[in-house]
Amino acid sequence: MKSFWQRFLGNPRVMVGLGWVALVVLVSLFADILAPRDPFAIVGTPFLKPGSEFLLGTDSLGRDIFSGLLHGARTTLLIAIVSTLVAVAFGTLVGAVAGYYGGLIDDVLMRTTEFFQTIPSFLFAIVLIAILSPSVANMVTAIAVVSWPPITRVVRAEVLSVKSREFVQAAVVAGQRDSAILLTQVLPNTLSPLIVTGSLLIATAILIESALSFLGLGAPNQMSWGFMIGAGRSFLRDAWWLVTIPGVAILLTVLSINLVGEGLNDALNPRLTDL
Amino acid sequence: MGGSALGKYLIRRLLQVVPVVLGVVVLNFLLLQLAPGDLATVLAGEAGGAPKEYIDQLRQRFGQDQPVLIQLFNYLRNLLMLDLGYSFRQSAPVLDLLMQRLGATLLLMGATLFVSLGLGVLMGLLAALWVRTWKDHVISVAAIIFYATPLFWIGLMLILVFSIKLGWFPTSGMEDVVAFNEGFARVVDIAHHLVLPTITLSMFYLALYARLMRASMLEQRGLDYVAMARAKGLTERQITTRHVFRNALLPVVTMAGIQFGSLLGGSVVVESVFAWPGLGQLAYQSLFARDFNLLLGIFFLSACLVVVVNLVVDIIYVLLDPRIRIG
């Protein structure tokens, strides 16, 4: 039996995905050094083609697309990661409490979770931001609000399967408090499916964030990939690169995160790889 | 399964719908409370300012001077009577606006469900039959890529290639309004306009269903009843079409029901890209007009649609799978 790391890193798809994700993370960390100018600054003639004076050309106002791409990576990634963390924290709390206490609490919490899974989530996110007004914090809130239910389901299922095991019973008999049992005994055992679901959620969050920014609901004064596509769509006929370049960036990033997430899943559940 | 058992199941399942719809109504109400400024201040602001007495008078007229719970009760009562409020931007009752747009959205949804489920199931089936060959890999890789593609971007790319460069399809709208087509010519025209939006919206779900179908086929193929069928002397073809395929379809049908809500969300983006005159485009327009009555009306109607579709899927499921005991 190979170790987890051998299975994970030995998967060529994972290596490709990790490579691109690492690049995007580095670029967003060092965006200010790599492209020191404000991405909204007008630096040249509008509609310059890629490969001219500017590596990826300029947009309809003469803004540098390369700079926009780097700063956009930062906004998109930051919002996706923070909203996923919020969704994971909240979803874990609800799932753990529902699974651990069972009974009426479980019923109420799970009906609520199902409710949030039933309502059209993207539309709900749009409504939330439209009413709360567009900002980074509201974007994070909206994405987290529509993303937590799968986490809750995963955690609850794991808690249910773990809580009747001997080591949990032993902790109960030893007189540990509920919160301590949940945190130190139960939740560590739910970690692997949580990591898989969480990593795939980041990809979904990027797609939601881009779609919201594309519709013009992104945070004002924050360059993002979806915003770049939304701003460039009116010039599709004459300047294809305005829309194409940021779209490829979104596609590659979401694809890479999905590949890594699936690689994690395969490596953590080796029996399933046969499928 | 007796007819009465199915009837009882239907009634029980219908009752489960009630809390969800009520939940959406309460959620809508809470969101309206969250919105900055109430209707009275908005109207007064639009009129270029108004004295405080006039605003109070407006509030009284809309019942906004009453306690929140009473307001919620009034809101509920109005909704039960299908009064979704009035859109002051479009100067029309919200319900009328929704009904004008519902048809276009349902057409797009129907076409998308048909294409994504049909092709998705077919692709998944083929990938499973050709498992671990190059054809399987091609299908799987294509599915992974479609699964990661933003809807709005694929829509714009399709317009770029098939409308602008090749000129095969119109860039936007649902029909050529100046052509005044009638009868069959109009149907053809609408179908022509429908192609690109449907492909755009289908891509993601096609990929999802293909991947699910493939996994489901492979899982079913390893089960005991397949070995039994083989021992009985059935050919592989019979096993696949009569047994494995039917069982493998069930999770895909469930998923299609679950995904209907997200499909409606996707239609907002796709309709705004293609100027498709449906609910999604209406939502997009109401966003920037800050027309919350209309926006929340669309949200309410969409949630009701999702509930109805899930109900239908559950019923189909019971009819498809006799193992599900009802009652």
Strand order of the largest sheet of chain B: 1-2
Helix share, percent of chain B: over 70%
Largest interface: A-B, 42 and 52 residues
Cα-atom radius of gyration of chain B: 24 Å
Helix-strand string of chain B: HHHHEEHHHHHHHHH
Structural class of chain B: mainly alpha
Largest sheet of chain B: 2 strands, antiparallel
Share of residues in strands of chain B: under 5%
Major sheet attributes of chain A: none
Strand content of chain A: under 5%
Low-pLDDT segments, ≥5 res of chain A: none
Number of helices of chain B: 13
> What overall form of chain A do the CA principal axes indicate?
elongated
Name the structural class of chain A: mainly alpha
Oligomer: heterodimer
Distance between the termini of chain A: 18 Å
Q: Termini of chain B, distance in Å?
A: 10 Å
Q: Could you characterize the architecture of this molecule?
A:
The complex is a heterodimer of chains A (275) and B (327). Chain A is mainly α. Chain A is 72% helix and 0% strand. Chain A has 12 helices and no strands. In chain A, α4 packs antiparallel against α5, α4 runs parallel beside α7 and α4 packs across α10. Chain B has a two-stranded antiparallel sheet. The mean pLDDT of chain B is 82. Chain B is built from 13 helices and 2 strands; from the N terminus they run ααααββααααααααα. Chain B is mostly helical. In chain B, α11 crosses α12.
Write a short abstract of this structure.
The complex is a heterodimer of chains A (275) and B (327). Chain A has 275 residues and is mainly alpha-helical.
What's the structural blueprint in terms of helices and strands?
The complex is a heterodimer of chains A (275) and B (327).
Chain A: H1 4-9, H2 12-29, H3 31-34, H4 65-101, H5 103-118, H6 121-132, H7 136-162, H8 166-173, H9 178-186, H10 191-214, H11 225-232, H12 241-268
Helix pairs in contact in A: 2-4, 2-12, 4-5, 4-7, 4-10, 5-7, 6-7, 7-10, 8-9, 10-11, 10-12, 11-12
Chain B: H1 3-34, H2 39-46, H3 52-62, H4 68-80, E1 86-87, E2 92-93, H5 94-129, H6 134-147, H7 151-165, H8 184-221, H9 224-231, H10 236-258, H11 260-274, H12 279-288, H13 292-320
Antiparallel strand pairs in B: 1-2
Helix pairs in contact in B: 1-4, 1-13, 2-3, 5-6, 5-8, 5-10, 5-13, 6-8, 7-8, 7-11, 8-10, 8-11, 10-13, 11-12, 12-13
